[in-house]
Amino acid sequence: MPRCEFFWNHKMNANTWRNNFRGFGKEGFRRNMFGGSVSGPVLLPGYDGRNRTFFFFGYDGNRDVRDAQMRTATLPTDLELRGDFSQSLRLGRPVRIFDPFAYSAASGNRAPFPGNKIPSNRFSPLAQTLLKLYPTANRPADPGTLENNYQGPAQRKGYGNDFTVRVDQHAGDNHRLFFRFTQNDFGTLNNPWMGPATAEYDQYQDNFNNTLSYNANLTPSLIVTANGGLAREWIRYGRSARAAGFDLASLPLAANYKGLLDDSFMPVVTLQDKSGIFATWRAADILSWKWYGSAAATKIAGNHTIKAGYTYTQYLGNFSDNEAPAGVWNFTSTWTQERPTAGTGQDGFGLASMLLGTPASYNFTQVVRTANAWTNHGAYLQDDIRLTRQLTLNVGLRWDFEAPATERFNRLWFWDETIATGWKTNAAYDWKRDVVDKGLLPAGAPAPQLGQAFTGYVGFPLTPAYPGRGSSRAYWRNFSPRVGFAWQAMPRTVLRGGYGRFSNGFTGRASGSGSAGMHPFVVARGGMVTTVDSGRTVAATIDNPFPGGNGLRPSTNDPKEIIDGNAGQALGSIYPWRKKPAYDDSFNFSVQRELPARTVLEVSYAGNRGHRMNTRTVRVLNYLPAQYLSLGAQLRKAIPNPFVGSNLPITSGTPSNALQRAATIEYQNLLTTYPPAVTINMNHFNAADSWYNALYLRMEKRMSHGLSLQGAYTLSKLVTDIEGQPQDGVTVRDIRALSGDDFPHKFVMSWLCELPVGKGCAFLSDPATVGGKILNGVAGGWRLAGIYQYLSGAPLRVTQSSATMGTGLNQRPSIVGAYRKVEDVYRSVGLSGQTAALYVNKDAFAVTPAYTIGTAPYYFPDLRVPSRQQWDLSLMKVFPLTEKLRLQLRLEAENAFNQVSFAGPTMNIQSAAFGTIENTQSGARLVQIGGRIDW
Question: How far is CA 903 from CA 364, 794, 853, 868, in A?
């Protein structure tokens, strides 16, 4: 019956590097971890379970308190709150502010605000109310950037409880059952460290799982097992706005949508150049259930050990996840820059756009609860053949089937490129007459495809074309062969090798309506139409975001209403109908040799080839082909819209900026791969591959003379095209590079040493006297253990903010010089504007102009995050108190020598902090004291 407790306290820990650098004191932190267990036979009145029925009960708990983790934020200055941006900086240089309501069609520019000052009579009433939620700056801003002018103590409390109950039943010599139930709950509670504007939210999780298992030896050569169970996971995020002292009714919101918002939460405000308000405010209630069962049989027949089995899993996901139940205001520099179509690094300011009430976007969605289901079946057959005493061969085959995902109320949609919509541009539209002859574009400008029917759009389950309930086409051909061998080539040498194919499905990869593949008209929502002429003039402000109901969408579950309501607009996250599950081909070969002194050496190779992998980011299907990039600025030219008067449906909810209603359209939109949709973002895009190769060396010295030692070194390389999207939308080689998870060198060494003090050791080996026995009891029997880890840094990626490649695509910077790091990492550490040297040579890069493909690779093979190394140590001893009672004491130190491993630098070449390192990837030294009693 063990009982244990572990204790952490900030007084035993070191301060973090970042706190030291900023002059902050050590954060108060306390953690208590405790628990115990009891087991034995079940003894009840009238029932003696000895040798038949046994029980186990265990409990583990923890309580955390973080008193004051200092956080920083960048708040508006007093001058900026008064509309005065004459002192505001970006990239260490003054910004320029222009009037979004003073656009000149003749020049294509906006008029500047005199002195970079916005008159107070131009302020948005809603913006002024929201800005009052910010606290007052309380520290000097970082030199050269005016950032981090506020600091506050972020307090956090955490808890956790973990219970396990198990009962084992021996039903005869050949039949055994056990039942296990595990329940755990944990959570974190955060304080509003930045007042009502604080972004943090509380988190709670409550899980349980139970398993019933049966094992039977039917004959000496036949074993049957069966397992089944249920698991539940319940996750909740959020904090009541009212509990934080905020009432949505206090905001002067327009009446036509105010009642549609969830008034128990706050609206989110994101600001370019400043910290946002409630930036991660969230309402989530995620409840998932997992039913599982399996049956297996093992038959021994001569030299064959045959295994066969079947597995079944059903996953039920009930999601209610909305990151902003009261909407998201997004303010950037776009509206306050000089040119609507091409801003510069110093043009515009997010806070200036907010004061004027001109967001880049505003969206809200009523909270919806989804009910998705995924069902999986698997079957396998394997034969382990002992060909000789030294050689064993393994051969097997596995089949997996993942049924298409369903939703309880069939609120799913998907993309099918074969759907014939019949949609066409206006037949009366004439390219030469309406565009070229009017001098809007030169005669040599490529003419878009007009008058033809467009193919490809969304489909729905339980319709004539898709009679099933699934969100994708069923794929039945998931067969995975496996083969392996083990050969004792010499008495102390063993060779092993194998190959296997492994299927990767889609089950459970969803959290919320968008990633669950649900259509967007489940509930009422709003998408603000900020402009109808590509940003040249303002169509709505935050004080009246939906004039005349423009942009408000009613709820519906009717397929035709959804198609008509989305026609001519952007399609958000959507899944492909014809997707196929990804799979991996894995292979390995190893040689293991036993050496003298109880030492084993192993040399291995491991490889993995990933196929049809899901891209980590959505893929944009509607993009501008690279053949048109040379047209440059002509692509942003506004021309008469051929979709006006077309057969694209128009409903009462069709906004004024939809294709079929906008009087003009940018030329580039007509040249994209699918003009009827503004954007198409594809989830689960099965188009990526990966290659992993690794050499693995391991040496183990088993315990002898009081010492055991184990070391392992891995040399590896991981190449993939799973991340990002090609700059031209097509060429996969453009993003084929080292993975962000590529760590070529990893070394781990662990050891356990019995200190040579005590009975039978070099010191105090024969404590014959009473004093010697006492000294032996105190100083003898201590064990020192440790782990050392070294990990090389991940590759770095250089980015730029100005990333225009036409509709839907982004671009990367271009290389113009030697980019290798120019200074030692320790000289490249500091705050923005204070660093004397750069970890990466900024002059080696240039911002790639619009409609030009950047030359920088997705990841650089010879630019990496600094490497990481760490020592963890523990000292332990067991004190025998009585014949049955023992006390174990432990002293453990994580990052025992308080080594600092720095994180990567800022890598946006348009950031003032480019090339500087401001954070660490390792924590400060943590010390833990623990005790355990066994009886």
Answer: 36, 10, 29, 9
**Cross-strand bridge partners of residue 763:** 757
825 contacts 867 by C-beta, under 8 angstroms: no
Q: Distance (Å, rounded) from C-alpha 904 to C-alpha 797?
A: 10
Helix or strand or coil: residue 606? strand
CA distance 494 to 488: 4
Per DSSP, the residues of 163-198 read EEEEEEEE-STTEEEEEEEEEEEEEEEE--EEEET-
Q: How many CB atoms lie within 10 A of CB 353?
A: 27
CA dihedral of residues 401, 405, 408, 409 (deg, nearest 10):
-140
Rounded to whole angstroms, the Cα distance separating 217 from 379 reads 22
Is 328 in contact with 363 (CB distance < 8 Å)? yes
C-alpha atoms less than 13 angstroms from C-alpha of 547 in its C-beta half-sphere? 12
Tell me the per-residue pLDDT of 108-149, one tens digit each, with 9 for 90 and over: 899 999 999 999 999 999 999 999 988 999 998 888 778 889
Mapping DSSP to helix (H, G, I), strand (E, B) and coil, where does residue 564 land?
helix
Q: What is the pLDDT of residues 885-918, one digit of tens each?
A: 888 888 888 888 888 888 888 888 887 778 878 7
Tokens 């040496």 locate to 699
Q: Are 707 and 751 in contact (CB under 8 A)?
A: yes
Question: Which has the closest alpha carbon to 794: 836, 737, 750, 855?
Answer: 737
What does the alpha-carbon distance between residue 527 and residue 571 come to, in Å, rounded to a whole number? 12
CA–CA distance, 839 with 821 (Å, rounded to integer) = 5
pLDDT of residue 840: 85
Distances 554 to 519, 525, 549, 550, 846 between C-alpha atoms, Å: 13, 7, 10, 12, 46
Which residues lie below 8 Å from residue 6, measured CB to CB, with a gap of 6+? 31, 32, 33, 34, 890, 928, 929, 930, 931
CA–CA separation, 890 vs 876, rounded Å?
4
Q: Kindly give the pairing relationship between strand 571-574 and strand 680-682.
A: parallel
The DSSP bridge partners found for residue 860 are 796
Successive 10-residue mean pLDDT values, the chain, 935 residues: 59 70 69 86 89 92 80 91 92 88 92 96 95 90 84 85 95 92 90 75 88 94 96 81 72 90 82 80 79 96 96 89 78 92 76 96 83 93 95 97 91 91 93 94 92 91 93 91 96 96 73 62 84 90 94 87 88 84 94 91 96 83 90 91 94 87 91 87 84 96 82 96 86 89 95 74 59 62 89 92 76 87 63 62 88 92 90 86 79 88 86 79 82 75
d(CA 399, CA 310): 10
Q: Which residues contact 735 (CB under 8 A, 6 or more apart)?
A: 721, 723, 724, 725, 726, 858
Smallest Cα–Cα separation from 690: which of 654, 717, 670?
717
* Amino acid at the residue 451: G
pLDDT at 170: 92
Give the Cα separation of 610 and 141 in Å (integer). 48
- Nearest residue to 64 via CA among 203, 208, 216: 203
Chain mean position to CA 335: 31
β-strands 328-331, 268-271: how paired?
parallel
DSSP-based three-state secondary structure for 931? strand
Residue entry with tokens 């909305």:
322
Name the residue among 203, 164, 167, 202 with its Cα closest to residue 184: 164
What sign has the CA pseudo-torsion 663, 666, 671, 673?
negative
| DSSP annotation of 434 | I
DSSP string covering 787-820: EEEEEPPPEE--B-S----STT-----EE-S--S
The span from the CA of 616 to the CA of 153, in Å, is 35
Question: Which of 293, 264, 341, 306 is CA-nearest to residue 105?
Answer: 341
Cα(232)–Cα(211) distance, integer angstroms:
12
C-alpha span between 627 and 500 (Å, rounded): 42
